[in-house]
Amino acid sequence: MLTRNMKITFGALMLVILAMFMLPDFMPAVHASEAAAAEATSAAAPASAAASDAAAEPVANAITFPPAPKLTEADYPTIPGVNARVMVWLVAQLHLWFGAFVVAVPMFVFIIEVIGMVTRDERYDNMAYEFIKVSITAYSLTAILGGLLSFGLILFYPDLFKYLAMIFKESMFAYALLFFAESAVLYIYYYGWHWLQGGNKKWIHLTFGLLLNAVGLQLMFLANAWTTFMMSPAAVDAAGVFNGNTWEAIHNFLWNPINIHRVVANVAYGGSVVGAYAAFKFLSAQKKEERAHYDWVGYNANFIAISALLPLPFAGYYLTAEMYAYSQQMGITLMGGVFAWIFIIQAVLIGALFLSANYYLWCGMGRSDGAYRYNPRIKYIAAVLVLAFLVWFTPHTLVLTNSELKDLGGPYHQILGVFGIMPAKNTAVNFLLTFTFLSFVFYRRANKVATVSWAAAGNAAQIALFTVGLINIVILGVYYGYFTNTVYKVAASIPQVLTTLTIIITSLVIDAFMYKGAKDVAPLHWGRMPARSQYALFLLAVSFTWLMGLMGYVRSGIRQHWHVSNIFRDGSPDAFTPGLGYAASVVSVGTIIFMAMVIFVFWLSTISGKHVVAKGYWKEQA
Amino acid sequence: MNMTKKRLIPRLLQMALVVVAVYFTFILVFDVLLGQLIPKSLLTMYMVFVIAGVVMVFTFTEQGAQELAGPIKALVEDPSRKMVRNVVFVIVPLLAGYYTYSSMLPSFEAPVELRTIHPAPPNKFKAYGKSFNLTTLENPYRKFEKEDPVKFKELVKEGGNVYIQNCQYCHGDRLDGKGPYASGLNPTPLNFQDVGTIAQLQESFLFWRISTGGPGLPAEAAPWISSMPVWQNFLTEDEIWKVILFLYDYTGRRPRSWANE
Q: What 3-state DSSP class applies to B124?
């Protein structure tokens, strides 16, 4: 029986691998020579430049494609009582939220499963299983919303869908096939969890986990290509005539920056949603053991979210810098023009993320009596976090009353205006990250006493590391940010990040050796957490969701009155940029709907394990 | 571990004092010491997050949270505090009512508006009877900065002359937006010395803004108020490029550029 099962698993595995190898056949341009040509074309920045370059290339196929259609309001079907833009907007956003979650969960589930296998600690395996169980229902919702989005586009924006399908037909077909592969691998991974346990079977199970991630990421990358094509079209001329190949259209200017940003953000987002799940279970737990378990799960989820949150601002900064590099118009619309105020809201929400994550760690120190000695230091961390946060969201152009405008002599503040531009923001965010890490260091060592002989020297080295690092971050921010050319100003953000990463990694290494064999000050009580700490976990998930919605709107909105930037004009009655308040309201409604659906998913996971014995209901069997 | 001890100042009062102290520190530092008032909208945002930070510090331990909530709980539940409770329950709604009334009361002050200082430029624009592509447009004189520094210096000087004859009345002889006419304009002219103005922009952006002025602003930037003239009607193309050289040279800023020097 065992051998037969092994054979079936092996066969299924081979089929999936074969399917993945066949994928490129649906994309005719991934051969080396064509890919090289695509590289050359994609190097061009603006759409028009890219288009003219592409036009100079020999046409890859003989088919002549039509130009982008010039639409009027009559070309957009309507359904009375349905606002097409809001409907497509909300459905696309909900699809993206669930999609981000189901792509992210397998990533850290795989890592947790590996940790469980290496440490042989079954708690990790159980936690990984619980996370994937939550994502199964979310997976169905992702697919349903994806279907609804497709119908929405076909119904309300048929010409746009037709145009995109004409360019991306191969990748859309591959996407549909990949969905089958995703479903197959996910179901084997989930339903086979307890079957594929121990010895070689665990390795097979892990291989399915790896495949699940590979397929999930491919799905996301393909969908990203369609989105980014609409922002930075490639392989088309100025009239929108497709004159390249699929790979060129996929590998457009903003594709990889979005890919990187979304992969990192998805992990942080997924971590925050499973953190909310753990908080939900913690708050509804009846037994002490259950509370202890979900406290531990919540701690790990928060750890995942924060670990991915640390590099996220840099991935975002890279994406924005690329948008500026692609088109000055797009860059200024994004951060200097009409959407700049959404970035202030973004700054506030990111600050809320950091504050709630820190608060959760500080509350977590109450799990042990040994942590009291660190409590007096928390207020200093809080002061730095709040100060950095204030710099982080200070706008460059202020909202002023007329009398304030006259008193200040202009819309810029002589002192606070300095905090309004990116070098100050970058410096502030590096302080936020470093001090959040410091909270984590305090949390980790709160209940322990190092026993190594060089503990004092180790502590001194860490203090020196933090001090020198923070001074370096300030110098890089102030000197390069305010006294040099833009190219150095933008480039200085990289050594700032590297400084922060150096502090974090070096400090972790020192801590790992210094606290090896450390003794506990007092017992650690999992579950001894106040309810308000769990609301911090909820806040984390809500802030992430809202943030993604708002920034998603901005990313899409900077195309303004274009379906595809500068080549395919939006002719619908909604071809205008809505007011910021209206947009924020739509996103807020979306956030409420999503959170309601997520609570539904959490609730489903609680009823799935319940068994009711209905005495006297069933006929007695002889 | 019982850490309870009788405090000289109750925690709730401590928290309120910290918040009030931070508020008045902002006012003292900006409005009094630095002479640059802190705008009400910004101070409100600052204080919201200062309060959030203070509440977090006062409540992250169980003991701290209980000490903070204790007096509030007692106010609501303790039968011996009936009189105080009644007074508070009358005063708080009255204060809320007063705040609502005063914030809704019509005033003669013009409503606050969000003004887009740097509107997004179009890809192409028309000036001097021809079309300019902003994505590729470069200052034709910038190359002399390296190739012929003497000539470059001369061009900057010519740009300076153009500036003094035409621009300084509003933007000031120090390029700080404080020219003789500035006080008569609302919004006031742009301060080029500010790190957030020309230092953030490419030279092509400045060329577009100067040559087409206020009327040339895109519809996306509405509502817009600007008294910037359409300088293509008064200056030549060369004069505008030279004045741009002067703006960067005098302020010591570099135009935004993606190329390494």
A: strand
